[in-house]
Amino acid sequence: MFRAITLVALALVLFASPLAAKKPEEKAVAAVSADTAEKFAVVVERIRSQMAPGKRYEFLSTADRESVNLSFDKMSAMLTASGSVGAMPEDDRLRLFNEQEKVNGLLAKNADDRLICTHVAPVGSHLPVKQCRTAREVADSRSKARRQSESFDSTRLNRERSN
C-alpha cells in the first residue's frame, strides 16, 4: 500500500513539474490593453514594425502577412465603429476575439524566438538527444550553410577552369 502511494506521488511530481515550469504564452494582440481604436492603432503599428526584415516576425509568409494585415483592418474597423470593446455588441465582440486569436496564432507560429526542437542521435550513439534552437538560429544556420556551399561551388568551378 505504501509503495503504491509513493509511486502515485512520484508520478504526480514528475508530471506536474514540466507544467509548472512552462511560461505563459505572450499574446501579441490583447483586447484588454487595446480596448479603444487609438490604443489598438499603437499596438498594430508596433506589430507591423516587427514584421520587417530582421525583426521578430520576419518569418511570416506573404499569405500569413496579408492575413494578419486584413485581420488588423477588420479589428480596427470594429473598434472605430463602436468606440471601445465595452460598447460593442456581443456578436462584434466575439468576431473581434476570433480575429485577435487568429492573429496571435499566426504571429506566435512565426516568431523568431519560437523554439524548434528535434531529436538527433549524436555521432557514436544510438540514443537520440533533444536539441532545441530558436527559429532565428535555424534560419541563420541554413543561411550560413547555403553561403558555404555556394563558396565551395564557386571555388571548385574556378579550379576546374584554371586546369
The portion of residues assigned to helices is 55-70%
Please tell me what the overall shape is.
elongated
Number of domains: 2
Question: Would you tell me the structural class of the helices and strands?
Answer: mainly alpha
Strand order of the largest sheet: 1-2
Low-confidence stretches: 4-24
Major sheet, described briefly? Answer: 2 strands, antiparallel
Q: Please, how many helices?
A: 5
Give the C-alpha Rg.
Answer: 24 Å
Report the count of strand segments.
Answer: 2
State mean pLDDT (0 to 100 scale).
79
Give the helices and strands as they follow along the chain: HHHHEEH
What's the end-to-end separation, in Å?
82 Å
What share of the residues does DSSP label as strand, in percent? 5-15%
How is the topology of this model organized?
Blueprint: H1 2-21, H2 37-49, H3 62-82, H4 90-109, E1 115-120, E2 129-134, H5 135-162
Antiparallel strand pairs: 1-2
Helix pairs in contact: 2-3, 3-4
Can you characterise this structure?
This protein has 163 residues and is mainly α. It has two domains: 27-109, no CATH class; 115-162. It has five helices and two strands; from the N terminus they run H-H-H-H-E-E-H. The protein has a two-stranded antiparallel ribbon with strand order 1-2. The longest helix has 28 residues, at 135-162.
Task: Give short descriptive properties of this protein.
163 residues, elongated, 2 domains, mainly alpha, two-stranded antiparallel ribbon
